[in-house]
Amino acid sequence: MNDMTSSLTPPLTGGDFGVPNEPRPVVMILSGPSGVGKDTALDALEALGVRFHRVVTATTRPPRANESDGRDYHFVSLQQFADMIDRNELLEYALVYGDYKGVPKNEITGPLAAGEDVIMRVDVQGADTMRACLPGAVSVFLTTATEAEMIQRLRARQADTSEQIAIRVARARHELAELPKFQYAVVNQHDRIEETARTLWAILMATRVRTDYERVQVR
Q1: Tally of domains within the chain
Q2: Which of 21, 148, 184, 187 could in theory staple to 14 by disulfide, Cβ–Cβ 3.0 to 4.6 A?
Q3: Which residues of the chain have pLDDT under 50?
Q4: Beta 27-31 vs 138-143: how paired, if at all?
Q5: Positive or negative: CA dihedral 204, 206, 208, 210
Q6: Any catalytic annotation for residue 168?
Q7: CA–CA separation, 29 vs 127, rounded Å?
């Protein structure tokens, strides 16, 4: 695949027209119901050669068989999670399907200080909070073409019981009502994942060159 790195990361060039000669890192909030392929889309974006920091969320749930600490999640105990709350180290946190999840602030502040793009995948419940905490971030709602495709993906993960899948699908129907709150909506078709990745790349680029670009400040 083509390497898109060179066209994505360089600073804008200054000159007589007053364009700032400095990096313009973008923070993307990628959300959507369970089973729409948020992680798969980000894997495809990396496969294109696009450089960005993928935010790793902290969670109190145990890792699944194919997950590793520090890559998929920061797997922590309830006490460790409570300590992170006490030290004000989390941008936001919530109880999701019986387990706590939260976004460590240093997962965003560090990469931004280095001029890196940051992409976080969060559930729809946490997207509102992220938009409030990260003014200037671009928000993207990822979804599948059909409900049947979403159910198929959830079953393929083999991580949930039939009852849990039913709950996730019922919740997804309500989450779709939140779509107008997002700046972009992207349909992730299972057989056109590279197209999804290229769309996300285009959104990053478009955000970077906006005349009203605002560097994200973590609140």
Answers
A1: 1
A2: 21
A3: 1, 5-14
A4: parallel
A5: negative
A6: yes
A7: 7
Among candidate residues 155, 157, 173, 215, the one labeled active-site is 157
Asked whether residue 25 is assigned to any structural domain, the reply reads yes
CATH of the domain at 25: 3.40.50.300
Strand duo 184-187 + 27-31: pairing: unpaired
Q: Is residue 81 part of a domain?
A: no
170-179: list long-range contacts, CB under 8 Å, 24+ apart: 171/33, 171/34, 172/33, 172/34, 172/35, 172/147, 173/147, 175/32, 175/33, 175/124, 176/33, 176/143, 178/124, 178/127, 178/128, 178/141, 179/141, 179/143
Alpha helices of the chain — where are they, by DSSP H?
Answer: 5-8, 38-47, 78-86, 106-113, 124-133, 147-157, 162-175, 193-208
Could you list the residue range(s) of the whole structural domain that residue 16 is in? 5-55+116-208
Q: Which residue has the tokens 């700032």?
A: 20
Q: Of the listed 24, 121, 131, 168, which one is catalytic?
A: 168
Please tell me the predicted confidence (pLDDT) of residue 203. Answer: 98
Q: Catalytic residue at 157?
A: yes
User: Three-class SS of residue 200?
Assistant: helix
- Residue 74 inside a domain? The answer is no
Q: What is the pLDDT of residue 111?
A: 96
pLDDT score of 145: 75
The model's pTM: 0.80
Residue 149 domain flag:
yes
Please check whether residue 121 is in contact with residue 39, taking contact to mean a CB–CB distance below 8 angstroms.
yes
